[in-house]
Design goal:
Blueprint (H helix, E strand, L loop, with lengths): L1 E6 L7 H15 L3 E6 L13 H5 L7 H11 L2 E7 L7 H18 L3 E8 L4 H13 L4 E2 L7 E3 L3 H4 L3 H26 L18
Parallel strand pairs: 1-2, 1-3, 3-4, 4-5, 4-6
């Protein structure tokens, strides 16, 4: 079993990375393979709604999203992490998520996922809600924690002092490990996820 932890911060080893590492340690204790994937600092173009990914299986913008999608398709669980920029996830992370879910969402369905955010002080709840919407719209299993999935600090050293935040990160790792084992046990006993119904789209204007 493998979990990919996506780091949506421009800082490869900053506050978001520090929080993801706390999750990663717990997953590894559960015998689960991990990879922290940094989306980087190169521009990530937004989705233009062209529909190419539906026809070819990958985004026509050949960048970090296609690299991530190939990895995501083979993974068993996901953590999406972002710093808070103006009470929202980073702009690069939003573009990344839009295109990742558009091109690879079906391959991530029915798998456990969590989102986490990092901020100096405020805007965390709004950013956290935005990331959770990707999980909620894609038939994924949202991994719980005892409190909101956020850490606070203006540098990694500050994050390491946020004892409550780090505890929640550890619990995400523990709970994801537990869910992955439950899913694996279900498969071994012939229990699979529900069959999807054909998509129904109801327009508000006819």
């Amino acid at each position: 079993m493998k979990v990919i932890l996506f780091n949506g911060s421009p800082h490869e080893k900053g506050c978001t990375y520090t929080a993801l590492c706390e999750i990663e340690k717990e997953l590894q204790k559960n015998g689960i393979e991990t990879e922290i994937f940094h989306i980087g600092t190169k521009p990530v173009g937004g989705c233009i709604g062209c529909g190419a990914c539906a026809r070819t299986g990958q985004c026509f913008q050949d960048d970090v999203v296609n690299i991530a999608a190939a990895k995501a398709a083979e993974a068993d669980g996901y953590v999406f992490g972002s710093p808070v920029h103006y009470a929202a996830p980073s702009g690069a992370m939003v573009s990344f998520m839009d295109r990742l879910f558009c091109s690879c969402g079906k391959k991530m369905s029915y798998k456990p996922a969590a989102s986490i955010v990092s901020a100096r002080r405020g805007g965390t709840t709004a950013a956290y809600d935005q990331l959770n919407k990707y999980i909620g719209i894609n038939n994924m299993i949202m991994v719980p924690a005892p409190y909101w999935n956020m850490v606070h600090g203006s540098c990694p050293e500050d994050v390491l002092k946020d004892e409550e935040g780090l505890q929640n990160m550890r619990m995400i790792g523990k709970n994801m490990g537990w869910l992955l084992k439950l899913i694996e046990s279900g498969k071994e006993n012939g229990l699979s996820h529900p069959e999807m119904e054909a998509k129904i789209k109801t327009n508000f204007i006819r």
